[in-house]
Amino acid sequence: MPKLAISPTFLSEFSRLDHGIQTAALTAVQAYMTGDGAPTETVADASDPRVRLLQVGQEWSGVVAPGAEGSEWLITIRPHDEAAALARELPAAERPPAPRAGSSALAEPDDGAVELVEQASDGSPALTGPPRVSGPEELSAVLAKSFADWQITLHPRQHRIVDARFAGSAQVTGGPGTGKTVLALHRAAHLAHRDAARHPHDERRSILVTTFNRVLAQILSQQLDRVLPDRELRDRVEVATVDSLARSLVQERSGRSPETLGREELSGRWRDAARADGLPYSGRFLVDEWEQVILAQNLTRLTDYIRCERSGRMLHLAPEHRTQVWETIQRYTGGMEVANEWSYPQVALEAARVLGRSGPRYRHVVVDEAQDLHPTQWRMLRAAVPAGPDDLFIVGDPHQRIYDNRVSLASLGVNVRGRSHRLRVSYRVSQEILSWAMPILGRHPALGMDDNADTLAGYRSLLHGPEPVVRGCASRTEERAAMGDWVRVWLEAGVAPGSIAVAGRNQWVVRHIAKELQARGVPTAPLDSAEDVRAVRVGTLHRLKGQEFRCLAIVGMSDPLLPPKAAVDSAEGDPVALEQVYQQERNLLFVAGTRARDALYVSYTGAPSRLLPRVDGVGPHAGAAEPAGALSGV
């Protein structure tokens, strides 16, 4: 059976076609390959008499040109007259080069081809070949592995960091796909081997691997099981979130579990109380001031608060205003103490005090997604391990900060000077996806944890793959249908369900995603499901944090949803809070978009979010551009 490949420009054109034309085109291609219909016709006066037209519906045609060794190329799909005119003018020299023998979708970086139809394992034709990325020879073996194996494979150039001996704490930063998390896992495994050799009779959990949320901790634990299969060695490593560690330490001291409240709930409560008291401050401002200044600097006296530097807080507060803010916060937090209610940073600060009295718990600590930890959590981690060689190994990226936690490690007793490494090469996200995602961040450099500005200058990828596709839809019904088509094609291409994810900004969008897929008979599971669940993962953008997928669809990227109207309203005209809202949403979308390795699809209805970058002239800054089509297969 001959292969039908597509030219490099085909995807961009195909994505802009009407959904009905796309469906008719895919049906025609499948019928042509099976010999069940979709006739072709020669073109009179064509420069190359072998060029033919493939009938697509009543008024459209595809231009099919011959390749080498029986292969054929689908050049474009256009209205019949336009397709015929192009076919007449198409000289052999302008056709794409013939695909290499044995090549698959984007298997070579310079072949310019993507398979559109290939033979399935049961002999029947598949609708499309799986989307793949290509890279240099050094990555060929890695890309050929199963996706699960690929997720824990360390790039050879990074072994020197894993095996290094540091005189103190060490920090590794880098953009998405540079392998920071994989490096952290292998570092933990290396420390476990070293710890067993040094302390053969002490089998306690002496190494902590920690991150900021439960989903990431679960993923890290599952992947560490594979990186470190020896049970005795694995038992030396504890994987826990910083919040669960803090909670257990406080409960151990007091005998009761603290009742924790999130920032949104606190902001709502304090907003209502401030209004009742006639105070000119928003609830969000008061909570941010408490968590980002008072708790972050562990201020316990009004005089210290009046004198302190409020780094990152753009709104100036005169001394008399600081007194009013201090008294208000003290009144609110006093009520929380009576009710045994805590904020998460508050629990971590208390846990640090517990460790200060009882002493360190671990010999080594490995921290993943370090940019999202609060200063109080760093105080706890600093107290959890004695200062010395290889005490803290820290990985993170300031550009992926989705919470407004600004940290100066040096001020917290964590010195990484001379032991910092910046990774600038991505081995896990294609250059096409990175080029789309990086403009999302805006022009302001991120503040690193070492107090220096952090930029993505020189950041690049060695992988190449399909361009991201952005589609504007006329209605939510159309948007959900288009998303379902994408998932269907990925599944029929042979992509494992667990390697596909669909995400939205909020739970309302997520529920509709799940309903659409379930109506199509596609099993779904939450993004934090176990690895072996054979279902497409569905969840919010926040749940994508730290995860990786072959194919990813992000839906609902409309102006009222990103940033959420509720988040903008919560700023209540406070310019500092509003700027933080927008930057956090930029970072969140950047993080979400870079979770895809092979294929990224983004959609919106009505007006697109102003945070979306342009794609081939389509986007929030492209004026009244015609919405992109739903589906290009890969």
From TrEMBL:
Keywords: ATP-binding, Helicase, Hydrolase, Isomerase, Nucleotide-binding
PROSITE patterns the UniProt entry points to: UVRD_HELICASE_ATP_BIND
Presence of keyword Transport: no
Record SUPFAM superfamilies: P-loop containing nucleoside triphosphate hydrolases
InterPro entries membership: DNA_helicase_UvrD-like_C, DNA_helicase_UvrD/REP, P-loop_NTPase, UvrD-like_ATP-bd
Catalytic reaction annotation: ATP + H2O = ADP + phosphate + H(+); Couples ATP hydrolysis with the unwinding of duplex DNA by translocating in the 3'-5' direction
EC top class named in words: isomerase
EC number: 5.6.2.4
UvrD-like helicase ATP-binding domain mapped to chain residues: 153-436
Binding site for ATP: G174, G175, P176, G177, T178, G179, K180, T181
This protein's record includes keyword Isomerase: yes
Name of the molecule in the record: DNA 3'-5' helicase
